[in-house]
């Protein structure tokens, strides 16, 4: 469910086939001149340029000098949506990290480049659970299963809060979607805490988040907090049979939704 990752040069397989029902995750880490080639086969893929700059070739079409971030806290990401049976080549122009977010599903949609200006940045929550949520591959992209984005917690702040879950099909109250978090901390010596729990109590864990940690969420509520003095980032990947993000708030903490509305009104 939760583990620390030690990224090596080359392809890092973080979520292996069969670990989750829908989601797989690799990260390609390259030095200048390194490249990684693959065919998307029967996968729908979101490529997210985490850091660095690269050339990307998809079925012979070139996208040059893609990426600009020195780190994941430095602005919005470049990304690609890649449907089935596409030949992809990633060539590093400088030290580079690319998240390869995958799910098996049949799709004949078109390749889509998402630029930083295309990313929708939402100011979510208030007070010490305010955070920036960045929607990268969302409903604007005609994907079949994937929803992908990034969240940044200011120092000391919470996200995925009030605690919510999405592990049961009970539309329109909730839609079951798996999720993966990949974390970074700024400065990297910092930390955060991640809780995962269920109402039944069969899961009730708290994990120490450090730079390059990974969480696989199949069920349960999953609030996360950054330590004071440190920004906390996570790439989030959602996938399920129904591609709709409908989350169910923990009834014990749902009252905070009303507080959010009151506090936002008071700021006007």
TrEMBL record:
<keyword id="KW-0413">Isomerase</keyword>
<dbReference type="GO" id="GO:0019310">
    <property type="term" value="P:inositol catabolic process"/>
</dbReference>
<dbReference type="InterPro" id="IPR014710">
    <property type="entry name" value="RmlC-like_jellyroll"/>
</dbReference>
<dbReference type="InterPro" id="IPR024203">
    <property type="entry name" value="Deoxy-glucuronate_isom_IolB"/>
</dbReference>
<dbReference type="InterPro" id="IPR011051">
    <property type="entry name" value="RmlC_Cupin_sf"/>
</dbReference>
<protein>
    <submittedName>
        <fullName>Myo-inositol catabolism IolB domain protein</fullName>
    </submittedName>
</protein>
<dbReference type="GO" id="GO:0008880">
    <property type="term" value="F:glucuronate isomerase activity"/>
</dbReference>
<dbReference type="Pfam" id="PF04962">
    <property type="entry name" value="KduI"/>
</dbReference>
<dbReference type="InterPro" id="IPR021120">
    <property type="entry name" value="KduI/IolB_isomerase"/>
</dbReference>
């Amino acid at each position: 469910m939760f583990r620390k990752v030690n990224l090596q040069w080359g392809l890092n397989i973080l979520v292996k086939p069969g670990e989750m029902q829908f989601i797989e995750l690799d990260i390609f880490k390259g030095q200048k001149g390194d490249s990684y080639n693959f065919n998307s086969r029967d996968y729908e893929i979101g490529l997210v340029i985490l850091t660095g700059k690269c050339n990307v070739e998809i079925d012979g079409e070139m996208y040059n000098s893609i990426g600009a971030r020195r780190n994941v806290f430095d602005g919005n990401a470049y990304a690609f949506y890649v449907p089935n049976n596409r030949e992809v080549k990633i060539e590093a122009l400088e030290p580079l990290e690319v998240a390869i977010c995958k799910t098996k599903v049949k799709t004949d949609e078109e390749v889509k480049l998402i630029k930083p200006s295309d990313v929708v940045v939402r100011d979510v929550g208030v007070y010490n659970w305010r955070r920036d949520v960045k929607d990268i591959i969302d409903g604007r992209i005609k994907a079949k299963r994937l929803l992908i984005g990034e969240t940044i917690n200011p120092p000391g702040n919470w996200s995925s809060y009030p605690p919510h879950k999405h592990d049961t099909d009970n539309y329109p109250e909730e839609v079951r979607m798996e999720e993966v978090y990949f974390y970074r901390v700024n400065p990297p010596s910092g930390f955060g805490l991640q809780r995962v729990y269920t109402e039944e109590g069969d899961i009730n864990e708290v994990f120490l988040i450090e730079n390059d940690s990974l969480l696989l969420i199949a069920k349960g509520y999953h609030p996360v907090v950054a330590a004071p003095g440190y920004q906390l980032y996570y790439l989030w990947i959602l996938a399920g049979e129904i591609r709709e993000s409908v989350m169910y708030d923990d009834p014990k903490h749902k009252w905070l939704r009303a507080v959010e509305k009151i506090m936002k009104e008071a700021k006007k």
